[in-house]
């Protein structure tokens, strides 16, 4: 197995590496081989409570640290995370399965949130508000919300964490992080970076667990937690929102997606084919919330597109993440593998044709992992689950359309609203369609996704609030209006 220099196997509370109070542990599994990568503390409600109390104590001082000083800590974290890129990427490949080259890109991008929010820490502006009465003065200041409970998924084990903790720390909040049970090692390695740059004890705490419900319940019932920042499935997001209602806790949610990828006949053909391959297969084997979930191709170019697309997909190399040239690794676990296969088999039963792939990879090299063949489906209709549900795997359903109006309506006909993509050279259409699509992100002739500088988040059931951009830090603040009567 690939050796990782320093692998942290303990939770982090009040600046110390600790075991779970219960003494229990759980295993982190490599999805490519089924082997155990490490055993970690299986934390429970008591550990979460301790972490929350600690974060609450630390908030009293961290919220008063000058923004410049908080900014310096984040700058240092950016530098150290950049230096430790390959170490972190190894952990990601081991516990998540994504190819090492892709993991390195993720770490670099994830580190970028420390850089971006190091700047934003110094720009938490208020407002001076003109008062209608000469004897009164109004102004507004922004203050940190308090203790933040952050819950993150496994698909981007580094970025989903930095996109939350960087703005929270920048704003002056303290954090209790609960990383996904599949990928806690990356979370602990990022925590070590913040420990090494001298973040004061209690400002960031991490509780690892195999049973997220128990910790989630403590986050919801504990009044010291003021905000829940969650990235994960829409289902769990709704559950947390219901729970947060009792104390009206602040929430921001980044949830599931069902991204349409629309290609018009006037598009740059090669760019559209490459974009649709990249946005479908080359992000964690299709296990990304912004991956293309439905590919709509204008009828006149559908045959040519499908031929070129399938050709490219057949050339994709699947394998273990440390093998050179591999661009698709395994799916995260058995459940995901079975869900993907169920969607494919259901589509086939309802009339879809398998142009390539269509099943689990079972040859010797793949036997112990959760590998699925890159799959393209044609003859797809919107009655099939594969277009209605988030696939979260390397399966591309191709649908055809005739007119702009028709495809907009079909693209919007979903409860999700995270990312969407359009390939066209028609300028008028760019304006019409970007305004009409009900999505938090519209990529035009672009399949690279979002940047640190842009606000990221979903419409409808894809989320609440925004991460990144100048909006990202506001999510961790409260606006306080101050009204002063001048002495006469
Ligand atoms: P998930 O909802 O099962 O798990 C996400 C996190 O929530 C994990 O840390 C998990 O341990 C925790 N969790 C699960 N049940 C919980 C509970 N009852 N209480 C508290 N915490 C609980 O999702 P997943 O399968 O790990 O991740 C995939 C989902 O995440 C997909 O739907 C994907 O679209 C979404 N996602 C969204 C974004 C975004 O930015 N919008 C980014 C990445 C992933």
Strand arrangement, major sheet: 14-15-16-13-12-17-18
Instruction: Tell me the number of helical segments per DSSP (H or I, 4 or more residues long).
Output: 15
Q: Please mark out the parts with pLDDT under 50 across 5 or more consecutive residues, or reply none.
A: none
Rg, rounded, reads 23 Å
Essential attributes:
488 residues, Aldehyde Dehydrogenase, Chain A, domain 1, Aldehyde Dehydrogenase, Chain A, domain 2, seven-stranded mixed beta sheet, six-stranded mixed beta sheet, binds nicotinamide-adenine-dinucleotide
Describe this structure in words.
This protein starts with 10 loop residues before the first strand and ends with a strand. With 488 residues, it is of the alpha/beta class. Helices cover 39% and strands 21% of the residues. The mean pLDDT is 97. The strands form 5 sheets. A 7-stranded mixed β-sheet has the order 14-15-16-13-12-17-18, sandwiched between helices. The relative contact order is 0.14. The chain folds into 2 domains: 265 residues, 3-Layer(aba) Sandwich (Aldehyde Dehydrogenase, Chain A, domain 1), CATH 3.40.605; 193 residues, Aldehyde Dehydrogenase, Chain A, domain 2 (3-Layer(aba) Sandwich), CATH 3.40.309.10. Bound molecules: nicotinamide-adenine-dinucleotide. Nicotinamide-adenine-dinucleotide binds next to helix 7 and helix 8.
Summarize it.
The protein has helices spanning 45-62, 67-83, 85-96, 100-120, 159-171, 184-196, 212-221, 234-245, 269-281, 299-314, 334-349, 385-388, 404-412, 427-436, 471-474, and strands at residues 11-13, 16-18, 25-29, 36-41, 127-129, 136-144, 147-151, 174-178, 204-206, 225-231, 250-254, 259-263, 292-298, 353-356, 375-378, 395-401, 419-423, 441-444, 463-464, 477-485. By secondary structure, it is an alpha/beta fold. It starts with 10 loop residues before the first strand and ends with a strand.
